[in-house]
Task: inverse folding
């Protein structure tokens, strides 16, 4: 839908932050400053609740050098929220926008956030309120439809690949132990799959990678671990936080309710206890958890630049009069990786998940195939192998 743009815009963040979400914010501010049609640009503090409470930051008043520094920081400089929007909230948002003459709304988030944006679009149309709504993609889970990948994914994936590489080195130096590494991703295994970049040879970690797209029978897990351990006297297992067993249960883990459904709190620990008790092996779990999405140490340069570009593209889209769309990243064909940008209707992405393709998994469902590495390598970048001592001398 095309609507005429006005001079006042608001940008808000929603859902879990990423290491590059502030780069998208920088892109919005930079590009909006170029166009004289944007007279004011405000950031809503902590997402939709900030709009409801009329709590805004004047983004044009921020010094450019400060914004560039903020763009290098992880987490959301504006603040984010998992607030569940009720029908009356949509009306309140439009009332606030009307009071402040806001006619352009940039919303940065994942599939749930795009669902909220779509609901706001429908309410604005119902009230005949002229509002441009443009979604800016953001999720570490990489589970948005209509886009090749999402800003935030590559940096988080890069963090976990390095974490598993280093845990694998520790596991090798002190044998006779099984390590369970629980990674982020909820229902989609894109991050778990990315830990395969830590693997430099057949015997290096991770030895087993399980993705939540497949149920994991307990006996299969135990058989797989026992097989690796017999061969190497060690084992590193990567499992996604949303992994379920053959009965659709999280292996007896404690479960908490959230805005996106139930999620296990201590899955890795429960799996280590299961392995230790069933196989009589030493086992422990590691859960970097939110560190994976809040660490700036392993930000992917490609990810940061594309996040910034998505913010810029959102503003360009608004200038063209577009509305009701989300910015997309489209991979160009060719030997060298190159991205272009487009947009998709909110209806195509709202409340929907793009899961990891089964065609990119091994038949044993314990690793990923080269096709995934071809897809992800340009985004994640190189994961260097640690140097090792040469073969021991004969004496």
Result:
């Amino acid at each position: 839908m095309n609507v005429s743009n006005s001079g006042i815009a608001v940008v808000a963040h929603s859902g879990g932050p990423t290491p590059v979400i502030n780069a998208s914010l920088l892109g919005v501010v930079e590009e909006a400053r170029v166009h004289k049609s944007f007279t004011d640009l405000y950031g809503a503090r902590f997402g939709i609740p900030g709009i409801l409470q009329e709590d805004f930051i004047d983004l044009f008043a921020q010094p450019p050098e400060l914004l560039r520094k903020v763009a290098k920081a992880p987490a959301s400089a504006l603040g984010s929220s998992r607030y569940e929007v009720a029908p009356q909230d949509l009306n309140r948002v439009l009332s606030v926008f009307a009071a402040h003459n806001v006619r352009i709304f940039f919303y940065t988030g994942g599939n749930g956030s795009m669902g909220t944006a779509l609901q706001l679009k429908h309410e604005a149309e119902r009230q005949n309120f002229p509002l441009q709504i443009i979604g800016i993609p953001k999720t570490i889970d990489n589970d948005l439809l209509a886009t090749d990948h999402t800003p935030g994914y590559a940096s988080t994936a890069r963090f976990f690949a390095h974490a598993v590489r280093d845990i694998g080195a520790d596991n090798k130096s002190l044998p006779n132990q099984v390590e369970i590494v629980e990674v982020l991703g909820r229902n989609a295994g894109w991050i778990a799959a990315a830990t395969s970049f830590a693997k430099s040879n057949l015997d290096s970690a991770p030895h087993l990678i399980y993705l939540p797209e497949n149920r994991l029978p307990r006996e299969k897990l135990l058989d797989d671990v026992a097989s690796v351990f017999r061969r190497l006297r060690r084992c590193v297992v990567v499992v996604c936080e949303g992994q379920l067993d053959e009965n659709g249960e999280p292996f007896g883990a404690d479960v908490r309710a959230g805005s996106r459904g139930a999620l296990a709190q201590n899955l890795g620990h429960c799996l280590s206890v299961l392995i230790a008790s069933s196989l009589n092996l030493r086992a422990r779990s590691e859960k970097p958890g939110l560190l994976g999405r809040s660490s700036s140490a392993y930000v992917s340069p490609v990810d940061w630049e594309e996040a910034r570009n998505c913010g810029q593209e959102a503003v360009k889209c608004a200038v063209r009069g577009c509305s009701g769309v989300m910015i997309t990243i489209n991979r160009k064909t060719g030997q060298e990786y190159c991205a272009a940008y487009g947009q998709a209707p909110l209806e195509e992405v709202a409340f929907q998940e793009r899961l990891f393709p089964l065609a990119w998994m091994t038949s044993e469902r314990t690793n990923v195939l080269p096709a995934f590495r071809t897809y992800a390598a340009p985004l994640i970048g190189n994961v260097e192998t640690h140097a090792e001592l040469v073969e021991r001398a004969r004496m």
User: Anything to note?
Assistant: The first strand starts at residue 8 and ends at 13. Confidence is low (pLDDT under 50) at residues 1-5. The CA atoms of residues 52 and 93 lie 6 Å apart. The two ends are 78 Å apart (CA to CA).
